[in-house]
Amino acid sequence: MAPKLGTLMFPGESIDDLKTDKNGKTILGPGLRRTYAAIHIIKAGILQFKEPNEYWIESPEKRYIATKGDSVIGIVTQRTGDAFRIDIGASEQASLSYMAFEGATKKNRPDVKVGDIIYARLQVANKDMEPELVCMDSTGRSNGYGVIRDGGFMIKCPLHHIRRILRPNCPLLKTLGDMMPYETAVGINGRIWVKGRSTIETITIANIISDSEHCSDSDMKTFVKSRVHALSGLH
Amino acid sequence: MGVNFQRLDGRGTYDYRKITITFGIDRGCCHVQIGDTRVMAQVSCEVTTPKQTRPNEGLLYVNAELSPMAAPHFEAGRPSQQGVELGRCLERCLKESRCIDTESLCIMSGMKVWAIRVDVHVLNHDGNLIDACSMAAITALTHFRRPDVTVSGEEVTILSVEDQDPIALGVHHMPICVSFAFFHQGKYLLVDPNEMEERVMDGKMVIGMNKHRELVTLQLTGSMLLHKDQVLRCTQIASTKVQEMTKLIEEALKNDVHERATGGQFGSASSQDPSHVTSHVTTEKTMEEVDTEALRELARETVLKGRETDRESPGMTRAPDITLLGKQTGRIGEGGLSSWDVEDIEESEEDDVEMIADTNVKVVRETSHISKCLGIDSSEDSEEDVTETLAAHHLGVHESSRGASGDTTIDLTTALNQQKRPAPGRERGKVKR
Fold first, then answer.
1. What is the CATH number of domain A8-58?
2. Nearest CA to B277 among A63, A44, A159, A100?
3. Second label for B336, Cα 20 to 30 Å away, from B22, B23, B204, B429?
4. Does the fold of domain A71-148 match that of domain A8-58?
């Protein structure tokens, strides 16, 4: 029997008849484990599938586990000899070298203070080492990474909500952008930075983002509209 | 930078978030929610020997637990500074206020007493843990029933719940903590700070009080000094808050007693919203075998019957079947296939009509027939021109056809869609990924 995609699964259940790629391989993501006989669910959540052969369990999460290549938002907590210490919400703080910024040289140090918010990419992430961040892409350009300045507001969201927001077909940020202009940076470590035209707009956007967790994609437009209309009633 | 005097969740200065109190299936289990902060308290009891100094008094232990489940920065094992503060505050609030009658917990003087233990677990941390924990702890203590005992000579028998109804603890009064967060060296204060507000506050004052306005605890933390008047003002606020919360607790307890007596729903599971667990579950459509032949037969019969009734009453007009759309559900400019169809008007009169328009009412509703207007659009130069001419033309048709039969449906979706141009500068929502 083919596994029921998009349904709630519990630990101890097993699934079989998984789809494979050309080489007969299947990729098991978080929440799934193979024993001799079958593939078992090891955490409660919703079974998801991505073509051609990836399966995983999606469940509400709050703790971020650093993964290479993730774009994250961190807070500078310390300045040391040649690197910054950044809190990215993982079990360990990440380090960010002074040289990992666009145009940085030994003489020309980046202007980063303790308490700044940084949008960066994880260059090194494995379970035995301290994660390392960089603020540039492979060509040495900043490409949007770096210190986030000029106010705005950073909120925390559960990780599953962030992953949903970052999905290409998620209507939330698009609908919000149609209603009011704003800037945002979404870190997959459960942090979103937003900035609207005014303080009250920024708060509204932040609240809409965090409240939309249980809103389905089809209801999203109505939800966002009603909240923005409620705001315009305030003025 | 200007100060906007706005709390993030839109609350006023003295507003609490929504407080929910629920109980477990077992006695002495209480679950308190203040906004997104959740705590659970469980009371248990055992028989021990009393302290040498107080041979005829029972014991009360209070234990607070901050697990990593509540917030990622809490660590299991040794209690953090926040954990110690929370535990100490609860102990002062419950133990040192002597709100539980410990003398009634004595079974045999100097030999055996009941030890009551309250375990408070923080399930989710969104600020103001002390208030939530103190509420949960005192409510759980009030809710708890200990088994009855009989003493004959030296022998103590603990009676099971089936043999003898368990006994409630003697609760003299219900002390509850109220927290105040201070900003700008005590210039501004907030009641019930959430996690983000707690992060940026200068200091915090916790006032423990019961509904008789008796002060039980007063604790000031943070690097800040307060004026005497400020403290007095806070006690005033605390007293009104404690009154409200006590009323809430009493109501919850009364409700629980009623539900247990009548066999209704109780326990914290019934208070959970299951849709939050399954909000992203996509339920698969179950396939059922359908006899299409029978359905076709049914459809044919219905149509035939409909034709007969139409023939029977030629002069009658059908009652208008108006569907009211809910607030903000107008579907203007939703895109998709256009149902703007001039030629189909005559045909659609025979179709099942969903909505009828008065001449002075704008109609917003899609009809089911397939459009042919794409061809018309491309033949014209300007989209806006098409819209206007079509609208005028269509309304003319509509009026005349209404005169003829009374029933018709038009759709202005396309027209409005075309008129609605995206305003310049609206799509500035920039997304960094």
1. 2.40.50.100
2. A44
3. B429
4. yes
Q: For residues A148 and A115, give the distance between their C-alpha atoms in angstroms, rounded to a whole number.
A: 11
3-state helix, strand, coil in chain B (%, to 5): 35, 20, 45
Shortest Cα–Cα distance, B397 to chain A (Å): 34
Its pTM stands at 0.70
Instruction: Return d(Cα B242, Cα A113) in angstroms, integer.
Output: 43
- ipTM score of complex: 0.78
The tokens describing B231, both together, are 């403290």
Asked if B4 lies within 8 A of A5 by C-beta distance, the reply is no
Does B309 have pLDDT greater than 80?
no
Residue A187 Cα, gap to closest chain B Cα (Å): 8
**CATH class in words for B19-172+242-267:** alpha beta
Residue tagged 């705001």 (tokens): A231
Report the pLDDT averaged over residues A17-43: 87
Q: Return the CATH number of the domain spanning residue range A153-230.
A: 3.30.1370.10
Q: What are φ and ψ of residue A48, in 5° steps? A: -120, 155
Selected for mutation to probe chain A from B6, B17, B278, B280 (highest A CB count within 10 Å) is B280
Which residue among B4, B275, B429 places its CB closest to the CB of A173? B429
Is B4 in contact with A176 (Cβ distance < 8 A)? Answer: no
> Which position has the higher pLDDT, A187 or B373?
A187
Partner-chain contact B425 A214, CB within 8 Å: no
pLDDT tens digits for B118-169? 999 999 999 999 999 999 999 999 999 999 999 888 888 898 888 888 999 9
* pLDDT for B410 beyond 70: no
Name every chain A residue with its beta carbon within 8 A of the beta carbon of B281.
6-8, 46
| Length of chain A (residues) | 235
A7 touches chain B (CB under 8 A): yes
